[in-house]
User: Fold ARL16 protein from Certhia familiaris.
Amino acid sequence: PQVGTNLTDLRLPRKVTVRELGGCMGPIWPSYYSECSALLFVVDASNPAQVSSSCIQLLSVLSAAPLASVPVLVLFNKIDLPCYMSLVEMKSLFRMQDIVSCATQPITMLETSARDGTGLADVLQWLRTTPKEPC
Assistant:
C-alpha cells in the first residue's frame, strides 16, 4: 500500500510527471486536482473486502468539478495473484457501465500486474495518447 506521496518523471517521449497518492491520503487528494490533466486510479483486484471503499473513492474523484473533463484510467491491479477478480467481475462489482454512462470524463479500464508487468505497455500507450501531462 502507498502511504504518502511520490513524484516520478517519465519520458514518453515527452516528459510526464506522475504523482502517486495512496488511498489513505484520500482526504488530501482534492488539493492536487487543479494540477491534474489525467488520472490513473489503481484498484487492488485481489482484495474483495476493499471493493466498496475503492468504488466510493472513485465516485468521489469522478464527481469533483476540477476533474470533470480529465481522462481517467482505472487500473485493476494484482492480476498476478491467484485470488484476483477478473475484469468482468470488477466491472460488475463497480457497476462500471453505469459509472461510464454517467461520467463527464472519458474512462478507460485495464487489468495490470505491477509485479510482473502485465498491462504495463497498455498503460504507457494510454499515457502517450492522453492530451496532457497526467498527475
Summary: The chain has a mean pLDDT of 87. The helical segments are 51-62, 87-94, 96-102, 120-129.
